[in-house]
Amino acid sequence: MLLIYCPYCQVERAETEFHCGGEAHIARPADPSKASDEDWVEFLYMRNNPKGLTAERWRHNNGCGRFFNAVRDTVSDKFLKFYKAGEPMPDLEAIAKEAGK
């Protein structure tokens, strides 16, 4: 079982309380009414699927209900950092070095 830390509730709970929302820091088209079909396809469907560290968006469904971000290693499934929505994405290379990756 994975344990996930909610930066809003400041508690660590079982993964069953959370829902993964996919890749974090995906920018909406600046002017949605002028976005092309290709822009919408890129925004809605195209995601990175890296082997290693990735920033993901999570929601604490059975807690505060808020979205937050987490850095997770997709190889080991280990979480390395949690941070609130709206905060900038941390330097993944620095986190990897810190973790000895």
Outline the low-pLDDT stretches: none
Percent range for helical residues? 10-25%
Q: Using only CA atoms, what is the Rg?
A: 15 Å
Question: What separation lies between the terminal Cα atoms?
Answer: 23 Å
Per CATH, the class reads: Alpha Beta
- Major beta sheet, strand line-up: 3-4-5-6
Q: What is the annotated CATH architecture?
A: 2-Layer Sandwich
Overall pLDDT score: 95
Characterization of the model:
16% of the residues lie in helices and 33% in strands. The protein has one domain: Folate-binding fold, CATH 3.30.2270.10. The strands form two sheets. It has a four-stranded antiparallel beta sheet. A two-stranded antiparallel sheet has the order 1-2. The protein contains two helices and six strands. With 101 residues, the protein is of the alpha+beta class. The longest helix is centred in the middle third of the chain and has 9 residues, at 37-45. The chain has helices spanning 37-45, 92-98; strands at 3-6, 11-14, 19-23, 53-59, 67-73, 79-84. The relative contact order is 0.22.
Features:
single chain, 101 residues, alpha+beta, Folate-binding fold, 4-stranded antiparallel beta sheet, 33% strand, globular
List the helices and strands and how they pair.
Elements: E1 3-6, E2 11-14, E3 19-23, H1 37-45, E4 53-59, E5 67-73, E6 79-84, H2 92-98
Antiparallel strand pairs: 1-2, 3-4, 4-5, 5-6
